[in-house]
Design a protein that fits this description.
The protein is an alpha+beta fold and 530 residues long. 54% of the residues lie in helices and 9% in strands. α8 packs parallel to α10. The radius of gyration is 29 Å and the shape is elongated.
């Protein structure tokens, strides 16, 4: 056993695992505020389900030493009888524990179907999603992994190459996303939805975790701590950086803005595109691949408007197109001087043989994943159900979890203390039982809820109501998400209703003005009790 290689693979397994909660943060920040927990739950639950299915049957179907070129046998069922696995993409002499390989490959199996949840955001029923995860992790992923990553796999023997999952992970997940979208359909109200992302800084944190974890995703796939691992790591970073810049350049030319969402999306597109190439190309090739990825994937975002499919978070444009593009570009840029286990691409004098093999592999993986995923989605949809009813899609956190990620009220977001008014009864000791004669209504702009409450009660208010409101400002400002512009001319404020008697009316109005109420927003209405 090689201690350095073993330590490196175990570390990389942890990095790839870390990508799954990173994906939850990445997607969670881009969905509407009432669907955050549901989105995150859909991304976290694969850690539980697929870890179990992988140990029971997934690993043996993918990497069993028995079996044939299409599917493995059950000789390693539940990891009860493990032989030394037959490794892929690396030179002979890899000496790491079998369980280290099992754990590392498990993390790839976990994150693959989680990727497609960004496409179906706002629609999936949790129970149906659980069944789909189990089905995909048994019927689809292990077979594709065997075809490309096991020496007996028919695509491996054909000569197709996939360093770390351009086809096994991204293309198969993207094809599955298309299949599930066909079954669950569009969100209620699409394409006229106006649900803004709830927390783009959260998205940035998730994107950063994905980038960090991608070093383990790509640099660990050779299963050795050597020069190829270093090359794969630098290629990963360079491609992500280049794709970020080219995405932003296209975004600037086409929309006039460079956005945070565009920067992170471009980086992820570059990381997905370099994944099948990372251990087979040089640094210069990785730079070019990243630049191409950013341009192609940002333009692919517009496909959903042309083809009218509701890919909520552009999984198809980023992961599917990126994975397929990288697998195809490997036929041009692969270089055996970087990795002797690789064939040469067109630009390295290898002719078009590798490109043909890559094309056959891409088509085979996409068709297989699409057909099996569609069949699974149809069966699940007609039995346990896969899509939430349209009326429940706008508040899935409440429907599925009976909770919320944030306090949805600006008032509730400002916890109140036991103020002076709560102690002495307010209104300066005035008779609390005298009937109010008027209702004073005003719009205020303040975060000092405690101070406002106490001041109004001390001024003589008999009862108070405070609610969130949106006030027409007359000034239009632009909000942009995924190149879609939203024109906003409302500002968030508080609406105050205070019941008062004639004696304390002027004092209450003075308090409201002191807390930012515009005179034209203050109204006085006579109270007529029933």
């Amino acid at each position: 056993m090689n201690g350095a290689d073993t330590a490196w693979v175990l570390i990389c397994a942890g990095l790839v695992l870390f990508m799954t909660p990173g994906l939850a943060l990445f997607y969670g920040g881009m969905v509407p505020v009432r669907n955050v927990l549901t989105m995150m739950m859909q991304n976290i639950i694969p850690l539980g389900i697929i870890s179990v299915t992988w140990v029971l049957v997934g690993y043996t179907l993918a990497f069993s030493n028995g079996g044939n070129s299409v599917v493995g046998e059950f000789d390693a069922f539940a990891l009860l009888d493990l032989d030394t696995p037959q490794f892929h993409t690396v030179a002979a002499g890899v000496t790491i524990p079998t369980l280290a390989f099992v754990a590392y490959q498990m993390m790839f199996a976990v994150i693959t179907p989680a990727l497609l949840t960004g496409a179906t955001a706002g629609r999936l029923r949790f129970g149906g999603w659980v069944f789909f995860l189990a089905a995909f992790s048994i019927l689809v992923y292990p077979q594709v992994a065997r075809w490309l990553w096991h020496p007996k796999g028919w695509l491996f023997q054909l000569g197709a190459q996939d360093w770390a999952g351009g086809m096994v992970v991204h293309a198969s997940a993207g094809a599955a996303a298309v299949a599930v979208l066909l079954v669950v359909g569009r969100r209620r109200g699409w394409p006229n939805l106006r649900n803004s992302p709830n927390n783009l800084p959260l998205m940035l944190v998730g994107g950063g975790i994905l980038w960090f974890g991608w070093f383990g995703f790509n640099a660990g796939d050779g299963l050795q701590a050597n020069d190829i691992a270093a090359q794969a790591l630098i290629n990963t970073h360079v491609a992500g950086s280049a794709a970020m810049l080219s995405w932003l350049l296209v975004e600037r030319i086409t929309t006039g803005h460079c956005t945070l969402v565009g920067a992170v999306s471009g980086a992820v597109a570059g990381l997905a595109t370099i994944t099948p190439c990372a251990g087979y190309v040089g640094t210069g090739a990785a730079l070019l691949i990243g630049l191409i990825a950013g341009c192609v994937c940002v333009l692919a975002v517009r496909l959903k408007s042309v083809l009218r499919y509701d890919d909520a978070l552009d999984v198809i444009a980023v992961h599917f197109v990126g994975g397929v593009l990288g697998s195809f570009l490997l036929g041009f840029f692969a270089d055996s001087t970087v990795n002797a286990a690789s064939d040469d691409g067109i630009f390295s004098g290898g002719g078009g043989t590798l490109l043909w093999h890559q094309t056959v592999a891409i088509v085979s993986v996409v068709v297989f994943s699409f057909v099996l995923s569609w069949l699974c989605a149809v069966v699940i949809s007609r039995t346990v159900g896969l899509k939430e009813p349209g009326s429940e899609q706008e508040d899935l956190d409440h429907v599925q979890q009976d909770s919320s990620a944030y306090s949805l009220s600006g008032i509730g977001a400002r916890p109140t203390a036991a103020g002076r008014a709560a102690v002495d009864g307010g209104a300066g000791g005035a008779d609390r039982h005298s009937a109010p004669s008027h209702l004073i209504s005003a719009v205020v702009n303040t975060g000092r809820v405690d101070g406002l409450r106490d001041a109004l009660l001390m001024a003589g208010a008999r009862s108070l109501e405070l609610s969130d409101t949106a006030v027409y400002s007359g000034k239009i400002r632009t909000d942009t998400f995924r190149s879609e512009k939203r024109l906003i001319d409302f500002d968030e404020r508080f609406r105050v209703h205070a019941a008062v008697d004639s004696e304390h009316e002027e004092a209450v109005v003075a308090v409201l003005k002191r807390f930012g109420a515009e005179p034209e927003s203050i109204y006085r209405v006579a109270i007529t009790p029933y």
